[in-house]
Amino acid sequence: MPADVSASILAELTAVTGAAGITTGAAALEPHVTEWRGNYRGRTPVMVAPATTAEAAAIMRICHARQLGVVPQGGNTGLVGGAIPASTAEAPQIVLSARRLQAIRNLDADNYTITAEAGCLLADVQAAAAAADRFFPLSLAAEGSCQLGGNISTNAGGTNVLRYGNTRDLVLGLEVVLPDGRIYAGLRGLRKDNAGYDLKQLFIGAEGTLGFITAAICKLFPPPRSLSTAFVAIAEPAAAIALLSRARVALGDQLIAFELINRRAMDFVLDNLPEVRDPFAAAHPWYLLLELGSAGTGSAADEQLEAFLAEGLTTGQLIDGILAQSSAQRAGLWHLRHGISEAQKKAGAGIKHDISVPVSRIPEFLGAAGRVVAEQIPGVQVVAFGHLGDGNLHYNLNQPEAMDAGAFLALREPVSLAVHSIAVGLGGSFSAEHGVGVLKRADLARWRGGVELELMRTLKAALDPTGIMNPGKLLPDD
Ligand code: FAD
Ligand code: ZN
Description:
The protein contains 18 helices and 17 strands. By secondary structure, it is α+β, with helices and mostly antiparallel strands. Among the domains are: about 5-95, Uridine Diphospho-n-acetylenolpyruvylglucosamine Reductase, domain 2; about 105-220, 2-Layer Sandwich (Uridine Diphospho-n-acetylenolpyruvylglucosamine Reductase, domain 3); about 225-340, Alpha-Beta Plaits (2-Layer Sandwich). Strands 10, 11, 12, 13, 14, 15, 16 and 17 form an 8-stranded antiparallel β-sheet that branches. A 5-stranded antiparallel β-sheet has the order 5-6-9-7-8. The protein has a 4-stranded mixed β-sheet with strand order 1-2-4-3. Helix 1 (about 5-15) packs antiparallel against helix 3 (about 55-65), helix 9 packs across helix 11 (about 300-315) and helix 14 runs antiparallel to helix 16. It is globular, with a radius of gyration of 23 Å. The model has no long low-confidence stretch (mean pLDDT about 95). It binds flavin-adenine dinucleotide (FAD) and zinc ion. Zinc ion binds near residues 386, 387, 394 and 433.
């Protein structure tokens, strides 16, 4: 018998979903109470997985009547602890899983939309679009295990934001079970709809604190007919900004990805991932990974990107560059980029930041942050990489080689405060991509206090007056 809920509540929940929707027992619940990196660990008496929206609504009505906390969970790949339950005997929390909501309900090829349930894996949504000769552009390293509902709830970004926008820009309509069990049925596939407040936006990026998303209707795009991927070496971040500005004029919206990588990140990858080779013979201070998608077939994309890079070499904007010659080479370049987090983990203790600033101010951020962290932690290893085209950097710090990991991690608070202060001072954000969850609640209070936080609390109180949706996440305590 799970300790935190009575047998009668468990029977009520089971009556809705049948035994197939109920998971209890420490071993079976283990993957659902632990964050995949091991940074968060919680507990729950039960995970409930409804198979339909009606079942989800019935579950929510029970939780509302019984004052049970509800922690929505998708693929549990989030990076800020948002999907981890924190049940106690006094305040029980169930996990509400979307994993059985897996239908692609509709694909309207001429409307360029797909209607998919929240538990669809991101990779499955991409595949369904591809099967209809359409393209769903949201792409991130966790796409084989994260779910559409989780992507929407975290407003996931990824590597194609430059061209296609964040998840927020890709969602046209939502179906959401509200905390009292009512259903907001907003699955409209419209590009134009000016009928009052845009309610779906409230739930996008809400990290499960306002309702349980059961389905979404998302935009699709024509698939690029040819792709071209380049890896280039540059001398300094300012060159990256100049190159990006020129690329946007020269290549228009065919430019899909524009990722920055510093040498330390490259060193970590080369040292820790044996399958990766340095694309260049010499070491360079900074690198860019560019990708172009063209409506032209064959070598159309390669020709355009090659011409663009050739001009950069002539003017000295870039030091060196290579164009992927095969899909295997392209995958290798992306593997280098996506391998940074894993390589960094192998290289010792890390303090991570996920900041954004206006694109034009990235060099200023890097300069100022570099000075401050070196002052606070002499010998600190800065691993700076990320989605330069979106003004979003993963500004991570690894322990100095000679320093004790514990002593290094003890400096997290002051050093993160300094890094966030610089980003916010440049008009940026302390949380660009990964959300607030548990990790950044105090930062939300610090950087978005006043009227902004008041409005957030007003929305929370209006939609979830009894506070059962994902308690203890996103909003700081009063
Ligand atoms: P979960 O982790 O299960 O949940 C995340 C949050 O959403 C929680 O607060 C949860 O309560 C809520 N939630 C989940 N499902 C629902 C639902 N149906 N209704 C309401 N609330 C819900 N993010 C980026 O933006 N860009 C990246 O490039 C990127 N790369 C990543 C790479 C890796 C290897 C990993 C592990 C993560 C990466 N992330 C990235 C983070 C990414 O945004 C999340 O992992 C993903 O979007 C969350 O989906 P999920 O299904 O795993 O959600
Ligand atoms: Zn990222």
